[in-house]
Amino acid sequence: MITKTFKWIGCHQVTAFFIITFVITWGLGFSYKAVMSGKYLVLPLMFLATCGPALAGIMVACISGSNRSSAKKRISWVAFIISWIVVTSVFIANHVFINKGPVSPALVALVAISALPVAFIVNLVYTRFPIVPGFQLKSLRSGANPAWIFISLLVFPLLTVVSALISRLLGQQSPSFSSLPAAGFGLAGLIAVKFLYQFFFFNGTGEEAGWRGFALPRLQAYVSPLVAGLILALLWVPWHLFLWIGEGRDVLSISFWVSSYLLHIPSGIILCWCYNRSRGSVLIAGIAHASANTVVALLQPLEQKIMIIVLFVFVVAIVIIDQMWKRLPEEHPAVQKSLAN
């Protein structure tokens, strides 16, 4: 039975990825509302839930025998421990400097335990010394142009600035960083802390390592980047369901889902564009995703309708320029052939 299951997973990697992703995230979905109601002892479960896409990709890749690499065990453990310390420190820094929360030994211990899956993903995806023998995503051998680090970092903030300028021209309130009690270098420091928090928790780890790092290159072996981006967006939105329930969003409203898809469809295609243009770099997709959520979190208020229009205009431009309706060649670094779709 187990052998047949593993064989099926190996032959249907993308389908298996989607199933396992939703089993993990929705199966632990209760943890979002629990944590946001003050039951912090289930924080490790919430972190696992949010890491669902990455963990699903890692499991399918290991079961199917793809993404093979090698690393010395001792060095791998050192890389994992360093990753663990870094992600834990980033979470604590965000809690102290952004959320203005208190720190205690109990909190640090809880965060350190909760951050274990995040550190595990960082180690596997972003270091050359994966703790799981034989695993490595394509992101470390893609040969991306370093300029794409800056492009991915700025694309969503610049689109947000354009949206803000249009809002101002239309006589609406201009967004600002007024919620942050700092200016100059202090403000830059707070933005950096928030960006690193967004990257590690969980835009560049739990999400992008799975959606773009695993699923996208396999989808693009069969369909065009535009279709692949639309497929991911179709599933990316409902994946957030229990997070949004925990946040108190109006998930029973049709208008909520319409606006969510209108925001996530162009955003997903832009992330797909970043991934492909950087020759299959998960890091670039993660940076773009984290910068988008950072600017949305800190720059308020934003006029959603104008932002949606700006995003779609940009998407139309990149789709036409890059001809994203055409399939990528099989040898493209952002394409990974699996046994079946």
Fold and architecture overview:
- The structure is a single chain.
- With 341 residues, the protein is mostly helical.
- It has two domains: 2-140, no CATH class; 141-322, no CATH class.
- Helices cover 70% and strands 0% of the residues.
- It has 15 helices and no strands.
- It has helices at 2-11, 13-27, 30-36, 43-50, 52-64, 73-98, 105-114, 116-126, 147-169, 185-219, 225-239, 241-246, 254-277, 282-298, 304-322.
- Helix 1 packs across helix 5 and helix 6 (73-98) packs across helix 8 (116-126).
- The longest helix is centred in the middle third of the chain and has 35 residues, at 185-219.
- It starts with a helix and ends in a 19-residue tail after the last helix.
Instruction: Report strand %.
Output: under 5%
Helix content: over 70%
**Annotation, overall tally of beta strands:** 0
Q: Strand pairing plus helix content: what structural class?
A: mainly alpha
The chain-level mean pLDDT equals: 90
Secondary-structure element order, N to C:
HHHHHHHHHHHHHHH
The whole-angstrom Rg is 20 Å
Number of helices: 15
Runs with pLDDT <50, length 5+? none
